[in-house]
């Protein structure tokens, strides 16, 4: 069997890092084989893909050496972040750019474009749509469609469905499996349920970028469960194991202790902020005939509408809905990053602009790079403490980096981090001030199991201190094990506000991998 892609004796080091990312790594994939790379966030999986395509050092200037390398002549790469993928500003132009490079006649392009978008479940009324107006999940589908249009011999897939809803995830993987049947496919993916039966081989890395196992999926998951748990890597049944762990059971047992302490905390906060009439019974947040808009003109059609809603202190809301439904728009509207209309109060105070929420709400963007304002991980973590003039800013910064497992990355530029590490840094900086309202847009995508659980546990601890959490997520296990409320958004309208158990029961949900609840309910 011929070799499709390989590298021997790979040595690589990022500027600012304390050690080598890879030290004499050798890796090869026979033509036609499907390989899944598994390992903790930051172990170098995405970096290896970039080396195997020649992007490192060809397009990304990173010091690298190897004894030999075989880069395929025809390949396609789906990046973790779809915004790094596009060359053109509009959807049809992006697809046409690919087809033009393939020599497709102009009169054949419209049909090829429509078919390619439909293949990944991206059915648009208007193909000449600005890419930047799309949700991240919609962008990811476009990125996948553009790569599939190339019909490459080798596919490099770096978490291609990380930003997609469950239905979109299944749809895209069905497409990839169909078009990749006779291709060489190398996959980095945390959502492994859809790919286990597709791959021939699993390569398991430890946190230092060293291969500790290389075998069939059956053998890896049967014989290396201890290593998977040790390094916090996703594996079938990991949520069930976590739910039965002493850590989660302690969280579960302590949830009943919330009421009195949280109500008192909320009442104290209201008085501190001057809201004498805003006692805990009135809630932390309230919306009435609320709407959010894209662009400056409020005469435009609202992109999110909420008729009447109240949120109490200590709630954990999971915001659910398909890609493009308006979930991120809701968070941006609550944070006053978009124009809004209607009634909006936080702790009894009317909200009219960003200044009215800045001290009370923290926001974690879906794209973590949108939050970074400095040139090093350390300065990013220190920014909030320094801004507030805290005398112990250095000590607090070190503690925050250790808490989020980023202490060894503090000299690196935030853009040099893996997507999972960028996400942890964005969550860490948002949480540094401990605001009363926490808005998070897919905070766990791109994370390994260990860091996912660590972030959720930190948020749960904050919730128990009286903060309210509003989290956009596609992960039904987070809904099941952590949320206290579920908000469902469909076509720009908040349609359901339910208890998690009732929501999951109505959806017929039993375990990870089932249908997206909104697909069943409607």
If you had to describe this structure to a student in words, what would you say it looks like?
Residues 272-281 and 512-522 have low confidence and may be disordered. The strands form four sheets. A six-stranded mixed sheet has the order 6-7-8-3-9-10, sandwiched between helices. A six-stranded mixed sheet has the order 16-17-18-13-19-20, with helices on both faces. It folds into three domains: 3-236, Rossmann fold (3-Layer(aba) Sandwich), CATH 3.40.50; 237-280 and 312-339 and 347-360 and 435-522, P-loop containing nucleotide triphosphate hydrolases (Rossmann fold, 3-Layer(aba) Sandwich), CATH 3.40.50; 372-434, no CATH class. It has 522 residues and is α/β, with parallel strands linked by helices. The longest helix is centred in the last third of the chain and has 16 residues, at 449-464. It is 35% helix and 21% strand. It is a peripheral membrane protein. It holds the Pfam family ABC_tran. Residues 7-233, 285-516 form the ABC transporter domain.
Quick rundown:
With 522 residues, this protein is of the alpha/beta class. Helices cover 35% and strands 21% of the residues. The chain folds into three domains: 3-236, 3-Layer(aba) Sandwich (Rossmann fold); 237-280 and 312-339 and 347-360 and 435-522, P-loop containing nucleotide triphosphate hydrolases (Rossmann fold, 3-Layer(aba) Sandwich), CATH 3.40.50; 372-434, no CATH class.
């Amino acid at each position: 069997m011929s070799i499709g892609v390989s590298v021997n004796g790979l040595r690589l080091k990022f500027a600012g890092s304390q050690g080598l990312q890879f030290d004499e790594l050798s890796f090869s994939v026979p033509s036609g084989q499907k390989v899944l790379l598994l390992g903790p966030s930051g172990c170098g999986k995405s970096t290896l893909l970039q080396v195997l395509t020649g992007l490192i050092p060809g397009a990304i200037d990173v010091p690298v050496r190897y004894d030999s390398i075989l880069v395929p002549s025809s390949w396609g790469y789906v990046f973790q972040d779809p915004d790094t993928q596009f060359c053109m500003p509009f959807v049809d132009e992006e697809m046409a750019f690919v087809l033009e490079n393939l020599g497709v006649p102009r009169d054949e392009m419209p049909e090829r474009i429509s078919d390619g978008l439909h293949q990944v479940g991206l059915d648009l009324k208007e193909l000449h749509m600005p890419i930047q107006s799309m949700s991240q999940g919609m962008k990811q589908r476009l990125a996948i469609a553009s790569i599939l249009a190339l019909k490459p011999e080798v596919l490099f897939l770096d978490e291609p469905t990380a930003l997609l809803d469950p239905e979109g995830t299944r749809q895209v993987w069905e497409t990839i499996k169909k078009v990749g049947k006779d291709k060489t496919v190398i996959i980095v993916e945390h959502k492994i349920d859809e790919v286990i039966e597709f791959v021939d081989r699993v390569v398991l890395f430890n946190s230092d970028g060293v291969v500790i196992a290389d075998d069939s999926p059956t053998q890896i998951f049967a014989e290396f469960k201890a290593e998977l748990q040790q390094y916090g890597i996703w594996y079938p049944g990991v949520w069930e194991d976590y739910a039965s762990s002493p850590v989660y059971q302690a969280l579960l047992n302590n949830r009943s202790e919330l009421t009195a302490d949280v109500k008192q905390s909320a009442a104290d906060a209201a008085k501190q902020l001057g809201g004498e009439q805003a006692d805990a019974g009135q809630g932390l947040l309230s919306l009435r005939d609320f709407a959010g808009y894209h662009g400056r003109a409020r005469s435009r059609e609202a992109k999110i509408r909420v008729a009447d809603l109240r949120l109490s202190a200590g709630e954990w809301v999971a915001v659910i809905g398909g890609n493009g439904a308006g979930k991120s728009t809701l968070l941006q509207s609550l944070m006053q990053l978009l124009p809004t209309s209607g009634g909006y109060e936080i702790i009894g105070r009317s909200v009219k602009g960003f200044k009215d929420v800045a001290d009370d709400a923290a926001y974690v963007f879906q794209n973590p790079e949108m939050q970074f304002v400095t040139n090093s991980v350390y300065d990013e973590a220190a920014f909030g403490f320094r801004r507030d003039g805290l005398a112990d800013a250095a000590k607090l910064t070190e503690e925050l980096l250790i808490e989020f497992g980023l202490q060894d990355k503090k000299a690196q530029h935030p853009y040099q981090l893996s997507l999972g590490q960028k996400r942890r840094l964005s969550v860490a900086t948002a949480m540094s001030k401990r605001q009363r309202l926490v808005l998070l847009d897919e905070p766990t995508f791109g994370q390994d199991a260990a860091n996912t659980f660590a972030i959720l546990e930190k948020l749960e601890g904050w919730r128990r201190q009286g903060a309210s959490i509003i989290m956009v997520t596609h992960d039904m296990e987070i809904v099941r094990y952590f949320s206290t409320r579920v908000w469902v958004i469909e076509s720009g309208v908040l349609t359901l506000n339910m208890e998690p158990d009732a929501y999951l029961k109505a959806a017929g949900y039993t375990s990870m991998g089932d249908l997206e609840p909104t697909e069943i309910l409607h």
